[in-house]
Design goal:
The complex is a heterodimer.
Chain A: E1 2-11, E2 17-27, E3 33-37, H1 44-52, E4 59-64, E5 67-68, E6 76-79, H2 91-101, H3 106-119, H4 135-148, E7 153-157, H5 165-182, E8 185-190, H6 193-199, E9 202-207, E10 210-216, H7 225-228, H8 231-243
Parallel strand pairs in A: 3-8, 3-9, 6-7, 7-8
Antiparallel strand pairs in A: 1-2, 1-4, 4-5, 9-10
Helix pairs in contact in A: 2-3, 2-4, 3-4, 4-5
Chain B: H1 8-33, H2 43-53, H3 69-101, H4 103-117, H5 125-132, H6 136-172, H7 177-215, H8 220-229, H9 233-261
Helix pairs in contact in B: 2-9, 3-4, 3-6, 3-7, 3-8, 4-6, 5-6, 6-7, 7-8, 7-9, 8-9
Classes of the chains: A alpha/beta, B mainly alpha.
């Protein structure tokens, strides 16, 4: 995935112009897990919308697997911050939706849905309505629905925001397991530095619509508490915090 | 099928509802004591009229109406009302969904919907008779007009709300335009549409009866008009009572089917 000098300006109701993206360029190799980190309102979601094809750059280009992005498509699966499960479809039907939309044969669909239901531990809830699930279960279904559709790139826009720390850690485990099995490229937007350190191969820090720092997270996986307490992780954390403008002494 | 003991809330609701009806009947009876029969008939004469006129009403033969009683007249009124709502829904739903999904269609459709929305519906009645004569469409014309507006406006707003939430997700999963309409927009707006369907149906009874009073040869509105002409007040109220009960039953059926169809709602 590659962004080449992407620019995007928004005009507010007051007439003021805001730069959502300001000359953003970077490349993400196949299979890399990249966290987009930064304070709210600095362009993280704009970035993901560009790659998803929900928004178009004023200039520059977004290229995924050698093809310029011209709009949304199943090659770029998106997990949203808000819960977007189809409430009128049962859990299994939600996971099946993308497969059916792409014309995957019924037997294959069933096999895929069963496999993902088993993986996320919700086999018994296959016929449940989304309203019957807890917040954490719903996020698991949303992730499974996107992974099951076999996209080349997975875009996640703060998918675990609002969940407690323990639940979030459990969902990280599910996500990382799916990622390591499928080797998808992941772009994960978060404003939580701990989440970025626990998940990413690399962190891109966004501020005022620009990538201000590209921090590789080369320390080992799985990211146990011990790993996250290591010198290497601490250095990465300090580098990220500095690039976000956090002063040395508060 | 097993019988479930009703919970305390249901028992309380039923008890209070019964008490409310009993209080209303008591008040009605008290008022009737001080009034002439032609002004306010007592509840028992109204009930007698229901019994006597429900299946056959001989008096109607004298004014060239079928003597089939309230039942057959209610059936005719019900048919016109439901046909009106059905046609209105078939017209309004696609207009609303298209307007909700396309800015261009919205810009075309919104002004006429706004203008027609402020027209007092009853003034259209003479046109219905001019255009459709004495047919069932003339009786259902007002309902068709009203239901089309109500369904179109609701479908437009509900579709716009659903688009924001679900369309991006659907598109990113590879849904076609057809799937976006039939698998996402339509089910997503169903709860709002059930509410509007009930509103349209409730209004339909009134519009149909007005249309019948002003120019039809059947229907409960025509029966009411005949009885009103001969000052048979108890019979008029009896006909209205039957109409109210039928309207309540139809509303309860729509609400129950709607609840079942949208049982996925949070």
């Amino acid at each position: 995935m590659e962004l080449r000098d992407v620019n995007r300006e928004f005009t507010q109701a007051s007439g003021e112009h805001i730069r959502g993206m300001d000359g953003v360029s970077f490349t993400i190799p196949q299979g890399q897990f990249v966290c987009i980190l930064g304070p709210s309102g600095q362009g993280k979601s704009t970035l993901i919308n560009m790659v998803a094809g929900f928004d178009t750059p004023d200039s520059g280009e977004v290229v995924v697997n050698g093809r310029p992005v011209r709009g949304p498509g199943p090659d770029r699966g998106v997990v949203f911050q808000r819960d977007t499960l189809f409430l009128w479809k049962r859990v299994a039907d939600n996971i099946e939706f993308g497969l059916k939309a792409r014309g995957v044969p019924k037997a294959e669909r069933k096999e895929t849905v069963d496999r993902y239901l088993k993986f996320i531990g919700l086999e018994k809830f296959a016929r449940a309505w989304p309203k019957e699930l807890s917040g954490g279960m719903r996020r698991r279904v949303a992730i499974a629905a996107v992974f099951a559709n076999d996209p080349e790139v997975l875009l996640m826009d703060e998918p675990f925001v609002g969940l407690d720390y323990v639940l979030r850690a459990a969902l990280h485990e599910v996500l990382l397991e799916l990622w390591s099995r499928t080797e998808k490229t992941v772009m994960f937007v978060t404003h939580d530095i701990d989440e970025a350190l626990a998940l990413g191969d690399r962190v891109l820090v966004v501020q005022s619509g620009r990538i201000v720092r590209d921090v590789p997270l080369d320390f080992e996986r799985p990211r146990t508490l011990e790993v996250l307490e290591s010198q290497e992780a601490a250095h990465a954390r300090v580098a990220i915090l500095r690039s976000m403008g956090v002063p040395d002494a508060v | 099928m097993s019988w479930h003991r009703p919970d305390a809330g249901t028992v309380r609701r039923l008890a209070l509802g019964t008490l409310g009806i009993a209080a209303f009947v008591l008040l009605w009876w008290l008022i009737s004591l001080g009034a002439r029969e032609v002004q306010v008939p007592d509840p028992s004469s109204v009930l007698s009229s229901v019994r006597e006129n429900f299946w056959t009403t001989d008096a109607l033969e004298f004014v060239n109406l079928p003597s089939g009683g309230f039942a057959s007249s209610l059936l005719a009124t019900g048919k016109a009302a439901m046909l009106g709502v059905l046609i209105g829904t078939c017209l309004g739903l696609p207009i609303g969904i298209l307007a909700g999904r396309s800015r261009l269609v919205r810009m075309l459709v919104e002004p006429p919907l706004m203008v027609l929305g402020v027209v007092p519906v009853v003034v259209l009645l003479p046109f219905m008779n001019i255009w459709f004569g004495n047919s069932i469409i003339a009786q259902a014309g007002l309902t068709i007009f009203y239901a089309t507006l109500v369904m179109a406006v609701t479908a437009k707003s509900a579709t716009m709300n659903a688009l924001g939430k679900y369309e991006k997700f659907g598109r990113s999963l590879g849904a076609s335009e057809r799937a976006l309409v039939f698998s996402i927009s339509l089910p997503a707006i169903a709860p709002a549409m059930v509410g509007s369907l009930r509103v349209a149906m409730a209004a339909a009874w009134g519009f149909t009866v007005i249309a019948e009073i002003l120019g039809a040869n059947k229907g409960i509105g025509r029966v009411i008009q005949v009885f009103a002409t001969i000052q048979a007040t108890a019979d008029v109220i009896a006909a209205l009572l039957c109409l109210g009960v039928v309207a309540l039953i139809v509303d309860a059926v729509i609400a129950r089917v709607g609840r079942w169809y949208t049982s996925w709602q949070e």
